[in-house]
Every structure is written in structure tokens, then in C-alpha cells.
Amino acid sequence: MIPVNKNIDWPTICVFGDSITEGTGDDTGQGWVDRLKADWRTPHDGEAARANVYNLGIDGNRVADVSARIEAETAARNPHAIVLAVGTNDLPWQDGRKPTSLGEFHLEYQKLLELAVHRTRHILVVSLLNVNESHGDHGIKNDDILGYNKVIREVAAERGAIYLNFFGLMEYDDLSDGVHPNSKGYVKLFLAVKTELEQRGWDH
Fold this sequence. Notes:
By secondary structure, this protein is an alpha/beta fold.
């Protein structure tokens, strides 16, 4: 493992994922991670400063892509907590990209969690969101998502990570293109993740 940056000795949270983590589809440009970062940046009513939040979402990333960069990026930021929100690009899409089979997905997610737990025991794993199958030309099926979420949930349990199930959280009018949330959908995600992190005390 790459040695961590000891110059960072305050609480930090690294959020890894894909375009949904990045905030694609939000016309405010914030997404859910940057809303969390902004909410915690300024202490409220004299409270102690909250954890620094790093948005490490990259458009198009699959689980294997996050595994390839998580060691270096966590070493640079020395996180006391990690949030993983990735897997949508591993699904069967209609655009010709080759999906990650469920068996391979299970192995890749095990590898990702193994790398994450070497950095911290405070790991939050976010499920894949439900989609609007009739909106857009993505071709993703909710039945497929349920299968991939089952794998994510099982691997999280094996590694002692916290699993948040957000399948069913998105209404049709919460999605910008059938897959990515719009501003309204991202607010839902922001509030749900914020509540979970604060209840666990990982925000300090």
C-alpha cells in the first residue's frame, strides 16, 4: 500500500463513483456529493468544523476503474471514511458496451472492498439507483439492477461495510434522462447520505 499523507490529520471523506457521484444531470451543477461538501464546509451555530468531502466521481467509471485508483487517491487524502457509489456502468446498456457479468462483478467488488478496508473500517456502500426504463435509450432494466445490488449488499456484509439501499428512491420526475438524477433527485440522495453519516458520527 502507498503510505498515506500524514500532513492531513483532520477528518476527510472520500466519495468514489461514476457520473452519478460526479453530479451529471443536475442543472445546478452540484449533485449530491458537492451538496454534502458545501453543507459541511461552514460550521453552523458555532459547531466544530465538519469533515472535508472529496468528490472522486469520474464519468464512465466501473468498479474495476475505481479499484485501479483508490489506493493512490486515498493515500493522498488520508480518509477516515470512504463512500463507494459505483456499478451503474457495469450494467447491460443498449449502446453496445460489454457489461460486467454478475460473477465478474462479484469478484471486482470484493477486490474494491478489500482495498478500501485497508484504509479505514468506516465504509459506506451505496446501492445502484432504480431507472426509468421508458425514458431515454439506455436500455437498462431494473431487474438487472436488483441482481447487481444483491451482489453489492452481500460483499458489503462480508467486509463489514454499511450498505444503503436506494433502489426505489427515485421517482420518474427525479431523473433527468432515465438514469441520472436531476436536481430534485440529487437532493434526495444528499439528504439520505448526510443523515446516515451524521448518525454514525463520521462527519467529524
